[in-house]
Specification:
heterodimer, A: mainly alpha, 9 helices, B: 0% strand
Chain lengths: 189, 164
């Protein structure tokens, strides 16, 4: 069945049709949530909330944009709200986290090669999490999800020029945060 | 300054958004600038890492769990709406009550209150006995007696005498 037909049926309250849409997009939505939270439980919960929001917002969907873009828009807004709330809660613990990279650095040197991947994940995740929410979102959309500039501009309601400059700042900030580890022997290998 | 400008081009090159001319400018700069070369390597490492990340799958029975959550959700919550309505209704109704009170006090024409004879005398700070005494003093003795007789008869009948 065509996606448009599935959406039309979902709008009428057909749960099976909505289930098909969910199965098609669940991985993309989950990956986006996971790339910004690095927590499977939280990402799963956020994904469910996003689909619930989308289900009740379906009557407002008027096929002006692609369904995927519309769903990404809901996802990015929902995750952004979550990140903002989280950053408010974690403000104090972030100060403590500033000493973590050094601890991580020592650990990386000691541990085996297979554990290095895990550590790298943690480091990159920590560095991304320290960025403002708008930069986290744009990095996730472009560098993790691989969306085009045009799609990102539509999702975030920005001009392509703003997408370009925001992405530039986000990457630059991330590099600055990861600098000490990149300069290590074999840091990024 | 040139390095900073070329850093932007470098970023765009990762996204394949450079013109041939821009590509040439970037490449010739990279050949001569070791700092930018190392920057490019850093960015490449980071971007490759982000792209190659392994994501776990969503937890099992995603749709089944979502379905049960959907059944427990309502797009419109009447209780919440009612609560919101009452929150607004309290100050609005208070304001309306104040407006009505102010209108009643200031805008409605005041009614003239009819006072009884004794009330009138009271407000005019006159004593009814004093008035009677003054009336009697101006009369002759026969008239005084007649007036007293008539007054006592009227009092017995329960009819009040009105002064002219």
């Amino acid at each position: 069945m065509e996606e448009e037909e599935l959406i039309r049926l979902s709008k009428e309250g057909n749960e099976e049709a909505f289930g098909t849409i969910v199965n098609k997009y669940k991985t993309k939505v989950f990956n986006m949530a996971f790339s910004l939270t690095y927590n499977r439980e939280v990402a799963d919960d956020l994904s469910q909330e996003i689909f619930i929001k989308a289900y009740f917002a379906l009557p407002k969907f008027n096929f002006k944009s692609a369904f995927g873009t519309w769903l990404y828009k809901i996802s990015s807004n929902h995750i952004k709200d979550y990140l903002r709330k989280e950053s408010r809660i974690k403000k104090i613990s972030l100060r403590e986290a500033t000493i973590t990279p050094q601890i991580m650095k020592d650990e990386i040197e000691k541990k085996q090669r297979e554990q290095l991947e895990k550590q790298k994940n943690v480091l990159v995740h920590q560095a991304i999490q320290k960025l403002p929410a708008k930069y986290q979102i744009i990095l996730s959309l472009r560098d993790i999800q691989g969306l085009s500039y045009w799609e990102i501009a539509k999702i975030l309601k920005l001009s392509p020029g703003t997408v370009d400059s925001r992405l530039y700042r986000a990457r630059r900030m991330l590099r600055n945060k990861l600098m000490p580890f990149l300069k290590q022997k074999g840091g990024g290998q | 300054m040139k390095c900073k400008k070329l850093e932007k081009l470098m970023m765009r090159s990762f996204d394949g958004r450079l013109t041939t001319k821009e590509k040439d400018v970037l490449e010739s700069h990279l050949k001569s600038c070791s700092l930018c070369q190392s920057k490019k390597e850093d960015y490449k490492k980071i971007l490759d890492f982000l792209k190659e990340q392994d994501f776990p799958k969503p937890k099992p029975y995603f749709w089944e769990r979502l379905k049960s959550r959907l059944h427990g959700q309502y797009p419109y919550e009447p209780i919440v709406l009612w609560k919101q309505w009452t929150i607004k209704a309290i100050p609005v109704s208070f304001l309306i009550a104040v407006l009505i009170a102010v209108t009643t006090i200031f805008l409605l024409p005041s009614r003239e209150v009819e006072l009884s004879q004794s009330e009138e005398l009271f407000f005019r700070d006159l004593s009814p006995i004093q008035e009677t005494i003054t009336a009697l003093e101006g009369e002759e003795i026969e008239n005084k007696n007649m007036m007293l007789i008539f007054a006592s008869i009227e009092e017995q009948n329960g009819i009040r005498r009105y002064l002219p």
